Amino acid sequence: MKAANPTTPAQPQALDTTLLQRLRSLLGRRCEHQGQVWRLIDILPGEGLAVLESDLARPPIQMDQYGRASHRANAILQIRILDPVEGVLTLEMQDLLDCLESTIRA
Question: Global pTM?
Answer without folding.
Answer: 0.73
